[in-house]
Amino acid sequence: MVLVAGNFLNSGGYAGNAAGMKISSLHKLTDIRSNKPGVNLLHYVAQQAEQTQPELLSVVDDLSVLEEASKTSIEVLNGDMTKLDSQIKKITKQMEAPNTEKDVVAQMEEFLPYASKELECLKNAMEDLTKLQADLAEFFCEDTKSFKLEECFKAFYQFINNFKKAVGDNDKRREQERSAEQRRQQRENEQAKRRSGSFQGISKEE
Fold first, then answer.
1. CA-closest candidate to residue 39, choices 159, 166, 160
2. Cβ-Cβ contacts under 8 Å for 98 (sequence gap 6 or more)
3. pLDDT per residue over 144-168, tens digit each?
4. Of 59, 63, 62, 65, which is closest to residue 46 (Cα–Cα)?
5. pTM given for the model
6. How far apart are CA 136 and CA 131, in angstroms?
7. Rounded to whole angstroms, what are the CA distances from 10 to 34, 52, 124, 163?
8. Looking at beta carbons, which pairs linking 74-78 to residues 24 or more positions away fall under 8 Å?
9. Closest-CA residue to 83 (of 127, 131, 115, 129)
């Protein structure tokens, strides 16, 4: 929908038949102003979504998790896993030492295999996440070397907040327009009554 709006605005130009768009372009939707005060391209996109695909209005609520997801990078997660791996190996080595107390060894006997297994699952998940980052970069036609998953999440989270605000702005604007229309009709009715009263007064004098 955003792409269609962008192609319409750029029709006739070199960017008028784009097959895709960069994620950073989402932030520019609020910069493209309408001839109506306070209205931008995102307000138009939100209005079109309400009219043609209203289910999108509820989808954005499901994406609020992106805020938390954007606070951590793959590099940080990999660093944390490396530390955990190092700590597990260190503890395992300590348990193998002959001077380690037997009750401590007994306590760690079940924990260490469990921790190692969980860490291995995390490593596999991180490999999948790294692959997902590369796939997303390719999908959005971004540079795979500089593309960051957390930056992608942050961009979409900011867009969602802007989109929600645009929906709210549209609701307020429609309400204001309805109120203005009601006041206009009320004024016209009052003026019509006054004119009618004036004509009746003239008729009586005649």
1. 166
2. none
3. 889 999 999 998 899 889 999 999 9
4. 59
5. 0.68
6. 9
7. 15, 22, 44, 22
8. 74/126, 74/129, 74/130, 74/133, 74/148, 74/149, 74/150, 77/126, 77/129, 78/126
9. 115
